[in-house]
Write a structure and sequence with these properties.
This protein has 243 residues and is mostly helical. The chain contains 9 helices and 3 strands, in the order αααααββαβααα. It has a 3-stranded antiparallel sheet.
Length: 243
């Protein structure tokens, strides 16, 4: 019997046939960078357009305030939220728990500022585009069931909002558990739903940058005037979406 031919000798790997450790590290870094960019791309917040011109809410809110409030203040929250989100993604990949914890406060503040203002702009409308008046339908029914009347709700929300210490927000929110509306206030830029469980329906911003150029330090005048711009159609749509 003929014996089988012996297998060919194994060749020693050459430098050109095996990736170097440096090349592997380059590939890993590229993959990590790509992943970070993908995370960043998914999480980028943007400044929303207003559904009206800066001057259309006058005389309740001046065009000057609206332009500063929207293009400067809100835009800063958006910018800082994106920076904090990217840093959180990087820290999470590295397992950097200290930075992960540090980023929570920045995301809460700037993310809350972005959420709150995005609602606030839609909650308002010039009288020529439906602002002011009173709600109707299910929204009105829930308000009457909880407070007795629209005027009673308006008085209570105005009072609570004026009384916010320092900077913050006054809210009419929806409680899913009880199918009812409720009034709440939040300090700084704390987002209503994330901190109280109430779905935000109508908010009043009482940071001084929202009114100081027009009303100086007389916050009650600003709060009482803003009802002339309340967009109840938007508020009712938020209620319907929350149910």
């Amino acid at each position: 019997h003929l014996s089988a031919a012996p297998p060919p000798p194994l060749q020693s790997p050459t430098r050109s046939s095996t990736p170097s450790s440096m090349a592997l590290r380059t590939v890993a870094r590229t993959a990590t960078t790509t992943a970070r960019r993908a995370v960043g791309a998914r999480s980028v917040a943007t400044l929303p357009d207003l559904p009206y011109g800066y001057g259309e809410l006058e005389p309740v809110i001046s065009g000057e305030i609206m332009e500063l409030h929207h293009s400067k203040h809100h835009n800063t929250y958006v910018t800082n939220l994106n920076v904090a989100t990217e840093k959180l993604a990087e820290a999470t990949e590295k397992g950097d728990v200290t930075t992960i914890v540090q980023m929570q406060a920045a995301i809460k503040f700037n993310g809350g500022g972005h959420l709150n203002h995005s609602i606030f702009w839609q909650n308002l409308a010039p009288p020529s585009k439906g602002g002011g008046g009173e709600p109707d339908g299910e929204l009105a029914a829930l308000i009457n069931a909880k407070f007795g009347s629209f005027d009673a709700m308006k008085t209570q929300l105005s009072g609570s909002t004026v009384a916010v210490q320092g900077s913050g927000w006054g809210w009419l929110g929806y409680d899913k558990a009880t199918n009812s509306v409720a009034i709440a206030t939040c300090p700084n830029q704390d987002p209503l739903e994330a901190t109280t469980g109430l779905v935000p329906l109508f908010g009043i911003d009482v940071w001084e940058h929202a009114y100081y150029l027009d009303y100086k330090n007389v916050r009650p005048d600003y709060v009482n005037a803003i009802w002339e711009l309340a967009n109840w159609e938007d508020v009712a749509a938020r209620l319907a979406a929350a149910k």
